[in-house]
Amino acid sequence: MKSLSDFKTYMTGCNVPNYVLRYCDLLDEQGWQWFYGQVGDALNFVGDIERFFYILKWILKYDFIDLTYEIFVHDIMDPESCSESLIKDECREFLEDKYNDELVELIGGIINPQIDDEVVFPARYDETLFLNTTHKENFQSLLHIDQTHPSDSERRALFFILSGNPVLYGKKNLIYDFKRHCINIDIDNTNLHLSSGIHSLLVLGRNLYNGYCDNDTSPRNLFWHLDSKNILLAINTLKMFFIDIPF
Hints:
The protein is an all-alpha fold. It has 15 helices and two strands. Strands 1-2 form a two-stranded antiparallel ribbon. It is elongated and about 60 Å long.
């Protein structure tokens, strides 16, 4: 679809779902130009055109500003629990960086359950280790859901990492079973679809949680793939685990 005319022809043809046709019927010329740009940008990052159109079923019901962002969020939340990510592997880290602030606000403000009883931090925890207010609130939320014991530094280290990264926080229920109060032992990057940097964060969390080791667990391999923000998260996790262990 190299031109707007080709795009119109395709999007009003027999190869697209009815909900896309209904959406396109409402577009004026300016709307067509905008939608053409939105779809073109989004298609640069997806690897499955058929599933892309399926996801549009949910997105086109509401007003949106950035189709690529909506697709990316849908892929992270993964409501259909698909075994493969819609986002191309080589694009995932770019989108995580691009939409980091939006993801922090979305996941911290919407996914967080309401907490009636505030979790009390042990006196020796340094609250300056949190990356931001959302990180602290997410951490409190996980402690509350799990009812983590104040002396359980292993779970706190895992939750500190999960709560400090919006992608991992969005996948927290895939990583940790809050009903059984244990990590899901069968998790790997084939079903979580993480970038190399965020995968390294999860490996660090698992190592502090239960001593998990693999070929990526060495400090060099763990930190090699981290950007500056996630390096700070990893370092602060180690500080909390080894220095600020509560009694």
